[in-house]
């Protein structure tokens, strides 16, 4: 006898861990948050840990006293866990920031000083604003923006279309892992191979991918 997905995986139990989707189970939550662009929804266990941090560990982590050491250990532990989840080679590759919008803007400005007039940046038409505007700002310094368009009607990004856009002047390819509007998923492995073969940096916006699929 074959089992269904619901029987193999406790869907209702998982949903119940997220206060933002516990629809109608309390008077103060008669609705669900479905706007993925507002940020991934957080389960009770993570909310509890955040509360615990501010109660027990909200101190200067570089201090020489015991509570500071515990805070430092907590930071190191979460970096290791995130590195493992993302497939990073070490926890030193993990950087925390305010949000994707801020981090992408900072990265673009850091890249600005390395660009020469005529250098090219490839951006897709499926990006949300945070992964478009920072690159458009670089046009003032001479960078050229080339748009990788999705194919209709599926709304998919095809690798052969990217190949036609790449050149010896391509410095960066900025691409979403999954579209926040259409939900289409990008073949990142193939994109990485093409970008790196042309000596370009690959930047993947995983905001809408990572909450739903594990990076690999």
User: Which stretches are poorly predicted, pLDDT < 50 over at least 5 residues?
Assistant: none
Strand content: 5-15%
Structural class of the secondary structure composition? alpha/beta
- N-to-C SSE series? HHHHHEHEHEHE
Tell me the number of helical segments per DSSP (H or I, 4 or more residues long). 8
User: What best-fitting shape do the alpha-carbon axes yield?
Assistant: globular
Indicate the percent of residues in helices.
Answer: 25-40%
Descriptive tags:
216 residues; 10% strand; four-stranded parallel sheet; globular; single chain; alpha/beta
Describe the protein's topology.
Elements: H1 5-8, H2 11-16, H3 44-56, H4 66-86, H5 100-112, E1 120-124, H6 133-136, E2 144-148, H7 159-163, E3 170-176, H8 188-197, E4 201-205
Parallel strand pairs: 1-2, 1-3, 3-4
Structure report:
The chain is 35% helix and 10% strand. It has eight helices and four strands. With 216 residues, it is of the alpha/beta class. It has helices at 5-8, 11-16, 44-56, 66-86, 100-112, 133-136, 159-163, 188-197; strands at 120-124, 144-148, 170-176, 201-205. The longest helix has 21 residues, at 66-86. The mean pLDDT is 89. It is globular, with a radius of gyration of 21 Å. β3 (170-176), α8 (188-197) and β4 form a beta-alpha-beta unit.
Quick structural overview:
By secondary structure, this protein is an alpha/beta fold. The protein has helices at residues 5-8, 11-16, 44-56, 66-86, 100-112, 133-136, 159-163, 188-197, and strands spanning 120-124, 144-148, 170-176, 201-205.
């Amino acid at each position: 006898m074959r089992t269904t997905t619901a029987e193999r995986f406790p869907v209702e139990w998982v949903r119940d861990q997220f206060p933002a989707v516990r629809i109608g189970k309390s008077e103060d939550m008669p609705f669900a948050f479905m706007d993925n662009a507002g940020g991934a929804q957080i389960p009770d266990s993570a909310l509890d840990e955040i509360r615990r941090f501010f109660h027990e560990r909200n101190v200067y982590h570089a201090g020489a006293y015991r509570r500071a050491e515990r805070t430092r250990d907590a930071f190191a532990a979460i970096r290791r866990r995130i590195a493992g989840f993302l497939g990073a080679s070490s926890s030193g590759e993990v950087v925390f920031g305010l949000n994707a919008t801020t981090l992408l803007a900072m990265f673009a400005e850091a890249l600005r000083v390395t660009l020469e007039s005529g250098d090219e940046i490839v951006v897709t038409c499926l990006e949300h604003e945070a992964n478009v505007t920072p690159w458009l700002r670089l046009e003032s310094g001479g960078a050229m923006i080339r748009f990788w368009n999705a194919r209709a009607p599926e709304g998919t990004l095809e690798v052969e279309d990217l190949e036609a856009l790449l050149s010896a002047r391509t410095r960066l390819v900025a691409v979403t892992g999954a579209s926040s509007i259409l939900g289409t998923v990008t073949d990142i492995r193939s994109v990485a191979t093409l970008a790196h073969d042309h000596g370009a940096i690959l930047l993947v916006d995983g905001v809408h991918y990572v909450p739903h699929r594990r990076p690999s």
